[in-house]
DNA sequence: CTGGATGGATAGCGGCACTCTCTACTATCT
DNA sequence: AGATAGTAGAGAGTGCCGCTATCCATCCAG
C-alpha cells in the first residue's frame, strides 16, 4: 500500500506519518521509484503501536524511539531487554529526592528479602518510586510509605495476571511488544479501575450519587 | 514570609511563583504595602501541592487549576466533590472509541452488578478505561479485557488500603487534598511497584540479572 | 541613604509535536 | 496523450505550554 492508504487505515494524517518516518519511528517503505514506496501490514501495526504509546502511554516522541529501539534489539537476553524497555517507559521524576524517602524504598526492598544494597538512583523505576514518596513527604504525607506493602500485595495479583496474559496471547517473537503494550495500557486501565473502586467505596461510605463518577 | 523566602523554602524560582500567582494556582499574599506582601505556611503547603500535581501527577497548569477548584469547594457533598476531583485528574484519552471496547466496559460493569445502563462517554474515568481498551484492540490485543477482573481484584485491596490511609491520616478538612495526593502519587507508586513486580517475575521465569531493572 | 528585594505587568524564549509548503517526479484515469 | 491526483523528501513555519526575562516604581534593612 502507499502512504495515503496507510493514513486512511490508521487514521494518522499523511504529514504526521512522514514526520514519524523522518524521526525514525517507522521504517521506510520499499522504494519502487524515486517517489513511490510501498508499505505493508507491519508498517500499519508499528504505526498503531506508536499511536498507542503516544496516546495511551503518554510517551514523548523521543521516548517512543527509545522503547522501539529496545523492542527491536534481538541480541540481548529477554530479561535484559525487558529491563531496557521498562527503563524506557518509566520517567524518573524531576524533583530533589528526600533522603528519608530513599530510606523508605530501601526498607521496602529489605522487607521483600532484597539483601544486597540497592542504589535507588540507578534505575528509573526505583527513582520514580523514591521521587513519588519524596513528593508525598513534601506535601505532609510522611506515612505514605505504609501503603507500599498493601500495594505490593494487590499488584502481585495483577502482575501474575499480566504474566499469564502474555504467556497465553503472544509468541516469543512479539513477547516484548506485548509487555510494552500490556504495561502501558495496563497502567491506564489500572488508573481507571482504581478510580472506579474509589468511587464505589466513597459511595458506600459517604452515600448518595450514582455509581459512575460523573455527577 | 516574603516571596524570596517562599521560593527558598519550596525550591521554586521566584518568577515561577509569580506565574502561579497570575494563573490563580496560588492565592495572593496579604499586602502590607503597595509592593510588599506576606505569605504564610498555607501558601507554602499549597505551592508544594501544585508542584506535586505537576511533577508527580503530570497535570497541566489548567488541570491543576481544575483540581484546586474542586479541592476548595465547600458547599457540595463530599461524594460529589470527590467525583469532581476524580474527573479533574483523569484524562479521557484522545483517539476514537472502538464500539467493542465500549461493550467490554459495559460488560465489566454488569459483572460488577451495575444494573443501570452506563454511558461510557459521560465520565472521564470510564472514557479513559474504554479508550485504553480501544487502544489495546487497535494494536491487536483484543483479549486485554480478560484482565479487568483480575485487575479489580488487586485494586480492591489497594483501594481499601487507600481508604484506611485517608481515614487514619487526615481530618475532614483536608480529606479531599489527601485523596488527590493519594490518588496521583499512588498512581505513580503503583506504576513503579508494578514494574518491580514484573521485573521480579521476569527474573524468576527468565533467570539472570539483578533485582533492580537497571542492568 | 543606598543597595538589594518586591509587586505588578508585559514581552520573550525554548521545546515539542506536528503541519505547511515546495519541487520534482509518477500513477492512473479518460 | 493529456489531465488529474498522489508521492518522496526536506526545510520552514505554527501553535501551545510552561516558564523566564525585563522593566518600573516602590519599599525596607542596615
Automatic annotation (TrEMBL), chains A, B:
Taxonomic superkingdom: Bacteria
Keyword terms: DNA-binding
Matches recorded under InterPro entries: DNA-bd_dom_put_sf, MerR-type_HTH_dom, MerR_fam
Presence of keyword Lipid metabolism: no
Gene3D superfamilies: 1.10.1660.10
Sequence ranges assigned to domain HTH merR-type in this UniProt record: 1-70
PANTHER family attached to this UniProt entry: HTH-TYPE TRANSCRIPTIONAL REGULATOR ADHR (PTHR30204:SF98), REDOX-CYCLING DRUG-SENSING TRANSCRIPTIONAL ACTIVATOR SOXR (PTHR30204)
Annotated protein name in UniProt: MerR family transcriptional regulator
Organism: Lentzea miocenica
Amino acid at each position: 500500500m502507499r502512504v495515503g492508504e496507510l493514513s486512511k487505515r490508521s487514521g494518522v494524517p499523511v504529514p504526521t506519518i512522514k514526520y514519524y518516518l523522518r524521526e525514525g519511528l517507522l521504517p521506510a517503505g520499499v522504494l519502487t521509484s524515486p517517489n513511490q514506496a510501498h508499505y505493508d501490514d507491519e508498517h500499519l501495526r508499528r504505526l498503531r503501536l506508536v499511536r498507542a504509546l503516544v496516546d495511551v502511554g503518554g510517551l514523548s516522541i523521543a521516548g517512543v524511539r527509545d522503547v522501539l529501539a529496545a523492542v527491536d534489539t534481538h541480541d540481548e537476553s529477554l530479561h535484559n531487554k525487558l529491563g531496557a524497555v521498562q527503563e524506557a517507559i518509566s520517567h524518573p521524576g524531576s524533583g530533589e529526592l528526600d533522603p528519608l524517602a530513599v530510606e523508605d524504598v530501601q526498607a521496602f526492598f529489605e522487607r521483600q528479602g532484597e539483601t544486597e544494597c540497592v542504589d535507588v538512583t540507578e534505575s528509573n523505576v526505583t527513582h520514580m518510586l523514591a521521587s513519588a514518596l519524596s513528593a508525598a513527604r513534601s506535601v505532609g504525607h510522611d506515612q505514605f510509605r505504609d501503603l507500599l506493602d498493601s500495594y505490593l500485595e494487590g499488584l502481585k495479583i495483577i502482575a501474575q495476571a499480566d504474566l499469564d496474559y502474555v504467556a497465553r496471547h503472544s509468541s516469543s517473537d512479539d513477547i516484548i511488544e506485548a509487555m510494552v503494550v500490556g504495561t502501558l495500557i495496563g497502567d491506564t486501565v489500572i488508573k481507571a479501575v482504581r478510580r472506579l473502586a474509589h468511587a464505589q467505596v466513597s459511595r458506600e461510605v459517604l452515600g448518595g450519587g450514582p455509581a459512575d463518577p460523573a455527577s
